[in-house]
Design goal:
- This protein is about 0% helix and about 45% strand.
- The chain has four domains: about 140 residues, Coagulation Factor XIII, Chain A, domain 1, CATH 2.70.50; about 90 residues, SH3 type barrels, CATH 2.30.30.40; about 100 residues, Immunoglobulin-like (Sandwich), CATH 2.60.40.10; about 70 residues, SH3 type barrels, CATH 2.30.30.
- Strand 14 and strand 15 form a beta hairpin.
- The longest helix is centred in the N-terminal third of the chain and has 11 residues.
- The strands form eight sheets. Strands 1, 2, 4, 6, 7, 9 and 10 form a seven-stranded mixed beta sheet that branches. Strands 11, 14, 15, 16, 17 and 18 form a six-stranded mixed beta sheet that branches. Strands 26, 27, 30, 31, 32 and 33 form a six-stranded antiparallel beta sheet that branches.
- It is mainly β.
- It is built from one helix and 33 strands.
- The radius of gyration is 23 Å and the shape is globular.
């Protein structure tokens, strides 16, 4: 891995790191900024490559901690409507003045970010420490290396099988990662970033924007659906059958900054905050819709405008976003509450802990739950012929989990076509070749095969 280089920028920007309890709750008295704290990188820092984030995550009753990031506005404010994106998995081991995680900055587009440490406790409390601004500048890093005669290790380029005509997009060669947004507009508040597509990954094209913007509606390998600009992607496959659809409308512009009482300032905020959440019927089942009820309250002293709540479902073990959805609330009088109901759905990581994260007006409320199995992973009747040698899977029946980089083959025991990053991928079928089960996955092209001895499986993934 390349070494992470961090330089304090020449700009003398007075920014501090703040520690906060979960919005709407009173901080525990014995928790200080030393128990939930990012010590490196400091504010006003430029980063590239890979390297360690240092600090402390040690709170009494801690369940786990994780790091998150968010793209800042041009004025370095935090977008009100945008969700924080996970940078790590949930980590259960407390850390005191040590390495919180090692991050690879090439997995996000170059830009200016805030980095946040979140610690969740067994009784549902959340504590945060945040550092901003942090500038990611891998493009300049590459230019510096070029000037010294050194060469970066190139990222493996995805290979498209000639017979695959599925419409897909990949990041253009000059980008290490590109943003996936809620709609077809570059505006961090009205159309926030909800995910990223990295070099070496491809996304299925579902539709073209009917607004005439040229943006594509895409589905990422994790299942997340969003929109990407045509200016940052290369097209693969046959686009002749791609239809048009209307993107979601941009969100309401941010309200005027309001300082909530007894709360640390976090960019621009308004009086409405999410302060409660529940799963209707207390039952979330794999590959089925379940309603998430989010209570929002106007804690200000004036009538608030209508607004939007963003909801994400994140698998704690892998740190993957498995669902993103939105709900609206009306104008609220001071002290009034409203329950926003969002229909959620996720088809992977059943029988595992997930976390629902609701965002509105720069505030967050979280809820942990376990996704029930339901019909996911259940066996289907085996084919009448060759049932011992090959089997196709129905939707959600088998998921391949790659925990380390691995080689992907054009066919079982064939030639390597690219290197696959860690993540989860729906399996299309399994075939036994040379005494080994090989799995076809929906990634990069229709003929992507990965051997079963380098992966983990979830669901009914066998041949029998």
């Amino acid at each position: 891995m390349r070494r992470l280089v961090l330089l304090i920028a020449a700009i003398l920007l007075m920014t501090t790191s703040v520690a906060m309890a979960q919005e709407g709750e009173t901080p525990v008295q014995n928790v200080t900024t030393e128990t939930v704290h990012i010590s490196w990188p400091p504010p006003v820092t430029e980063v590239w490559g890979t390297g360690d984030v240092l600090g402390t995550a040690a709170v009494s009753g801690m369940a786990y901690y994780y790091l998150e990031y968010i793209t800042l506005n041009d004025d370095l404010s935090i977008p009100q409507n945008a969700p924080w994106l996970p940078a790590t998995v949930g980590i259960t081991q407390p850390i005191v003045d040590g390495t919180l995680a090692t991050l690879d900055t090439t997995t996000v587009p170059d830009g200016v970010y805030a980095l946040r440490l979140t610690v969740n406790t067994q009784d549902g409390q959340s504590y945060h420490d945040m550092v901003l601004p942090i500038r990611v500048d891998n493009e300049r890093f590459g230019a510096i290396l070029a000037g010294t005669g050194q060469e970066e290790t190139p990222e493996p380029a995805p290979t498209q099988a000639p017979q695959d005509t599925t419409a897909r997009v990949v990041p253009s060669p000059q980008y290490t990662a590109i943003n996936i947004r809620r709609c077809d507009l570059v505006d961090n508040d009205r159309c926030p970033v909800i995910a990223a597509l990295r070099s070496g990954e491809s996304a299925l094209v579902q539709a073209l924007s009917s607004n005439g913007s040229g943006w594509f509606q895409v589905q990422l390998p994790s299942g997340t659906v969003g929109w990407v600009s045509p200016t940052v992607v290369a097209q693969q496959g046959d686009f002749s059958g791609v239809g048009r659809t209307q993107p979601p409308a941009p969100l309401t512009p941010p309200a005027r900054p309001v300082q909530l009482p007894d709360m640390a300032p976090v960019g621009q905020v308004s009086g409405v905050i999410p302060n409660g959440m529940a799963i209707e019927g207390n039952n979330a089942t794999c590959n089925r819709n379940f309603n998430v009820q989010i209570n929002v309250a106007n804690t200000g002293n004036t009538v608030s405008p209508a607004g939007t709540v963003t909801l994400q479902d994140v698998n704690i073990r892998t740190g993957e976003i498995t669902f993103t959805g939105y709900g609206n609330y009306p104008s609220l009088n001071p002290g009034a509450n409203f329950v926003v109901v969002i229909a959620a759905r996720t088809a992977i990581y059943f029988n595992e802990d997930h976390e629902l994260r609701a965002y509105s007006n720069g505030r967050q409320f979280s809820l942990r739950y376990q996704l029930q199995q339901g019909d996911c992973g259940q066996s289907t009747p085996p084919p009448q012929q060759n049932q011992q040698a090959q089997r196709r899977f129905s939707s959600g029946e088998c998921t391949i989990v790659v925990t380390d980089i691995g080689e992907v083959y054009r066919r079982p025991e064939g030639e390597v076509v690219f290197i696959l990053d860690p993540g989860s991928y729906p399996a299309v079928q399994v075939k036994r070749v040379g005494g080994l089960n090989w799995y076809q996955i929906t990634f990069a092209d229709a003929n992507s095969w990965i051997p079963g001895n380098i992966i983990q499986r979830q669901g009914s993934c066998g041949i029998n």
